[in-house]
Design a protein that fits this description.
single chain; 67 residues; alpha/beta; three-stranded parallel β-sheet; 30% helix; Glycosyltransferase; Nucleotide-diphossugar_trans; glycosyltransferase
């Protein structure tokens, strides 16, 4: 199962979001975090989580706005 988390300038809330997904009882997860060109510290926070949990993949792209 994959969980996709879109991210754009949410440094104050992204840790809570990621930790909420990690606390789920279902452990066979792929967590894809798509950073849409954040200008705050969001990307760095996401990378820290990815470095500590191999289920997390972070993709950083130039800002494209709402999908």
């Amino acid at each position: 199962m994959s969980v996709i988390i879109p991210v754009y300038n949410v440094e104050n809330n992204i840790s809570y979001c990621i930790e909420s997904v990690l606390r789920q009882t279902y452990k066979n997860l792929e967590i894809l975090i798509i950073d849409d060109g954040s200008t705050d510290n969001s990307y760095n926070i996401c990378k820290k989580y990815a470095n500590n949990d191999n289920r997390i993949k972070v993709i950083h792209q130039e800002n494209h706005g709402i999908s």
